[in-house]
Each structure stands twice: as structure tokens, then as C-alpha cells.
Amino acid sequence: MIDIIDLSISYGNINVIRNLSLHIEPGQWVLISGSSGCGKTTLVRAITGIIPHAIGANIAGQIKINGIDPVITPLAELAQNIGFVFQNPGSQLFHLQVEDEISFGVRNLGYTESEVNERANWAMEAVGITKLKHCNPSELSGGQKQCIAIASVLAMRPQVIVLDEPTASLDMANTYKVMETIKILRDQYGITIIVVEHRLSSFIQNVDRVLIMDSGNIIIDDKPDEIFSNKQVCSEFGIRRPAELPMTPWRGLIHIVGSEISTSNTDSEPLISLEQITAGWNGKDIIKEISFSIYPSDFLALVGENGVGKSTLAMVIAGLLKPRSGKVRFLGTRHPKPGLDVAILFQNSADQLFTDTVGDEISFGPHNYGCFNEEYHFETLVNADLIGIEKRSPMSLSIGQQQRTALAASLSLQPRLIILDEPTLGQDWKHLRKLMDFLIKLNRKGSAVLLITHDYRIVHQYARRMILMENGRIKLMGKLENKQ
């Protein structure tokens, strides 16, 4: 089905894939993992023809997908055989209605209208977004966009489906739905599945092979049980072993003391106070009547299902979205200043990268405000593991490296509150843990952290307080169980 022989790929003088060879049988489910920047995304972009047709690169070697050479085959023809779900799903959505987005590919393959509707409805049901069929994708959450992108590919039922971090922005319920749907595609339709992923626990029971990449080549090709049982391999390549802790529902992690919804030290002055905040987009309220405070040295997790308003709330707190009603106060007196008082890491980190080099990106804010500190600049580069790539363009980096660059830039002004919206995208466990430990260090010095994530392990290990959102409102808030 898939044969790759001596494949090498470079961007200019930067070698990303080096003499890689790989064979995948029809109907296999293969998971590709490895440290951030090891070449995973470049490999799957070449398999799907995105490289070189949409992204320029130098290619040597041979790729065959069921006899088709993606290097010379037009993308329109490749799309009939190979489906690709990007790391950033928003980049492949362009219709004004979810139903039209999912029907588009099938309709262009020449199926009858009844067949188009059957496949689109099946795909929407499979990933749990039928109720969103008449919505505009641009107005939905990152996780909902991820589900739409997956459904649009599933509806076409190609011979090969490639998914680049498909669960990174999904809540647990949608993750399970996607896993079950992929399993059906393999078992009932014989579709070959390639998944690039760092969060492996959802896949361990289903995948046939796990490939570990390092420095542009495959260094381990084995069954998942063999890899997960090797602690040294998991540690060296940032592979997260299946969680030993039970996946307790979010509600079960929150401990409320008495009748108080907030359990922070109320003797100190709040850093950020929200009073009856209602906000949204295009005249539609997404969050409603939200009131709570964030205190200095808080490490707070904001959790909830896809589409409940977590990112909208983050934009309000960061001063980037004006609420329709209510007030946001910094230290009780004024609105927070974006970047200086509150910094935010967006879900799609590429949206906030704009300079020519990584080093310039991180030093831009401090130079602009006349507060550049060489020692802190170097410390930030080290803790974001960006040493050695300071001269590279942010756009030439992997998604994980871009994420770390954007976070380092957000931290460069040493804001009092740091908001991270789904920071696990593109990050292996080793890099993610290093970043989180750096945040803990800043937190102990007085910076508050608001973490928005679906990642149970990150919340359980690092957060001290948690807010649970449902339907645009705060449902519960309190300490995490077993934490003082």
C-alpha cells in the first residue's frame, strides 16, 4: 500500500528527513510519534502530496501510495485516494456552513445527492457534530473545528487517511467517538490509517504499529505494548505512557470547601476580577454572567467540553475581546493591558508569530517596551528548548516548535497572568513537562497561570484550582482533590 525508499527532504539547507524507508500494509493502523521537531509532520505532508505541491521543499528518494507517486500526482487526484487532517484544522475549512463543508469533497467526487447526504450525515454522527450542521465553522471552538475537519475527510472514505494530532483539541467524549470511527473505517472498510500523535493512551488498544522518529528517521518500529513497557525509550523520546491514574470526570476532581465557590486566599487582593461578564461573537452570547477572581500565584485550570466558551472567556480576560456586559478589573482599578498585564498563548500559535527569526520573536516585546534583559532572554530560550534555532524563521519550524516560540514570546514581558489555550498541541511529554516546570517556577515568583486544556494528566499534575464550564457558564470552581 505505502512504500517509501530512501526519502530525504530539506527546506533550503535544513535537512528534516534523512534516508527514510518505510512499508505499510493495506488496512494497517500506524501511529507515528517522537520528540517535537523530529520530522513527523514533514513525513506525512510528503505522503499526502502537500509537499511539494503546496509547501516547497527539496525531495530525494521514492514514495508510492498504492502505485501513485504523490510527488508528481496533482493534489486533486491525490485527494480521491488520500485524506489528510491538519494539525490546525481551521486552515482546511472554508465553507459558511458545517454541512456544506463536510459534503464538499464527496460532492466533487461525483456522487449522487442522496449518497452525498448519506455520507455527510454518517460522518457528522460519527464525530458527534450533527447538532452543528447549520453553524458557521469560523464561529466554533478549536475542538469543534477539529471534529469538522475529521468528518470532512471521513465522508470521502479514501484508501488512506492521515491525521496529524487529531485529538489535541478534543474533549474526552469526542476523542472516544473519533477513535471508534477510525476503528470502523479500518475494520469495515479496510482503510489504512496513519496517525501522528503525542497523546498515545487513546490509541494503544487499536494501533498495529508504533513508529518512533528522531532526527528525521524512524529509529523504532514495534508493537505498542513493547514500546510502552520500555521506560527508557518513553523517557528519551518524550512518549507519554498510559496514565496510571483513573480518568475521573472533571466534577470528581473539584473539592469545594463549605459553600464557597472560590477557595483562593481571599485575604490577598485579586489580580483579575470578572463581574457578571457576558460576551460572544457576531451578536451571539457565548459566555453568560461569569463572575470570579484570579489571585497572584494562582495556578488555575479551565476545563469543559468543546464549545462551552473557554477560549472566549480567555480572550475577555486577556483584554482582546470586549464583553457585551460586565466588568474586568486588573488589581481592582483598571482594564488589563494585553501583553504586559496578561499574556495569552493562542490555540493556533502561528497566528501570533510575525518576525523573521525565533530570537527576534522573543525579544520583540521587551525591545518595544525598552525592558530587554539578556539574562532573562537566554533563560526563556533555554526553558522553551529553542537554543540552536534562534536564527531560523518561525514559519520553518514544526508546530510544536512554533508553540514553544509563541509561549516564550508571551513570557518575554514577564506578565502577571499567563493564559495558555490548549498548549499541548505538537508537544511531546518531555518538552511539555519542561515548559510546565518553567511555568511553575514563574508561578512561584508571583505570576498567575490560567491553563485551558482537555489534558487530564497536565491538570492533575500542575493545577491547584479548577473551573468547570458548561453551556457558557461556570458550573463549579474549587481546589483539586488531594491538593492543599
Feature tags:
single chain, about 475 residues, alpha/beta, Rossmann fold, 2 domains, seven-stranded mixed sheet, six-stranded mixed sheet, 16 helices, globular
What does this structure look like?
This protein folds into two domains: 2-236, P-loop containing nucleotide triphosphate hydrolases (Rossmann fold), CATH 3.40.50.300; 250-480, Rossmann fold (3-Layer(aba) Sandwich). Strands 10-19-18-13-17-16-15 form a seven-stranded mixed sheet, sandwiched between helices. A six-stranded mixed sheet has the order 5-6-7-3-8-9, with helices on both faces. A three-stranded antiparallel sheet has the order 2-1-4, with helices on one face. Mean pLDDT is 86; it is low at 257-265. It starts with a strand and ends with a strand. The protein is globular. The longest helix is centred in the middle third of the chain and has 18 residues, at 172-189. With 484 residues, the protein is α/β, with parallel strands linked by helices. The chain has 16 helices and 19 strands.
